TrEMBL record:
Biased composition (Low complexity): 8-25, 34-43
Signal sequence, start to end: none
GO molecular function, one term: peptidase activity
Superkingdom classification of source: Bacteria
Coiled coil regions, renumbered to chain: none
Matches recorded under Pfam families: PDZ_2, Trypsin_2
Name used for this protein in its record: Serine protease PepD
InterPro entries attached to this UniProt entry: PDZ, PDZ_sf, Peptidase_S1_PA, Peptidase_S1C
Annotated keywords: Hydrolase, Membrane, Protease, Transmembrane, Transmembrane helix
Region (Disordered) location: 1-85
Example of a GO biological process term: proteolysis
Amino acid sequence: MTDGWHWQQPGNGRPQGQPVPSHVPTSPPPAGPAPAGSAPGSPWWSDALGDPWRDPHAPAAVVLQPGPTGVAQPEPVVDPDAPRPPGNNRSVLLVAVVSALLAGLLGGSLGYAFAARSGIGGGTALGGNGASPPAAANRPPDSLAGVAGRLLPSVVTVRVASSNGSSIGSGFVVSTDGYVITNDHVVEGGGTQTFTAAFSDGSTASGKLVGQDPESDIAVIKLARDGLTPVEFGDSDAIAVGDPVLAIGSPLALSNTVTAGIVSAVDRTIQAGDPGGTVRYYAAIQTDAAVNQGNSGGPLVDAGGRVIGVNAVIKSVSADEQSAGNIGLAFAIPINQAKRVAQDIIDTGKARRTVIGAKVTNGRTTGSGVRLDTVESGGPAESAGLRAGDVVTRIDRHPLEEATDLIALVRKYAPGSVVTVEYRRGTATQTASVTLAADAQ
């Protein structure tokens, strides 16, 4: 092998050790003057037929025609150190400079053209050539993104500041003139309070507290803004376990957060509240959507974008409320109950509490059911034929295990609702239709 620059002819014109092909004559070349351009020791020898690398279909040799005198004139050798005429140097230099400029311009133009065609440079496009996904605003209305986009303008971050400190929660607009539903525990605190609601577009509006109901954990704020977009209400009595839901709010002050899950259970009775404070009862919607502190007061939304609950409570493995976090057990107040309480607050400044007209205490029964300790004279229970000592086992087919179940389920219904009560008196099981009433307070 040779690099093409330092190859030298061996003595016989072939690489050493290379056998002579049968078609190549082995006799020396005929005597006579060497072809023009060849010289003793020159790599350009005339025995072309002896070249083992020659193309057999190529001419046998390249013969240079002799000059007029019959003698090949060797190419003059120029001494690089010899002085040259000034004029010739300037011409050569000018040609070299012009050639370099032209070559640079041509090379730059070609390089730019190839780079632009290949996507290299400032206009580089990464990734495939597939069609771009549609913008979020163009998602199908019934998709999760479509539902979230439709609801976010109606959900607010509620900030409460008072002399006792500050708190943050969530809420949602329920009228064009600025009424907002949130949780009572978001706005509680006492003292002089200021309320501010922040919208998904970054705008804010001041508000004032219209009223609150600690036992149902519902409060209403009126914002100083008109022309708002209210949410659409769903029917919390029509949902089923497994229905997809979205929770929207400001967990840990992260505004405009949307999480997804399903309805994990319905009519999950919850007793909540701080020790020594107000005790709250819910026949709640349970969901596994991620809900954390700050989600309180925000909406739980079904797949059609209708609000079915108010996020209110979470269960946590931590006993410390400040370090409690989502473990997939969150509870929302059914919207049918929350809407009714909010309407009472807007109309009258306070909410009506639904009662059955009896008192109960835990730990007074054997087996399932809740024992009635006392029955109010003239109240709903007595009017339906119930007496103290009766054990209520079901309300509208919902089984009862403890006193919390009876209280929470009764408060789920509006005053005036008629419910079917199954109860046990001695060994006999009976039923009664009870018309629930509003508390006298």
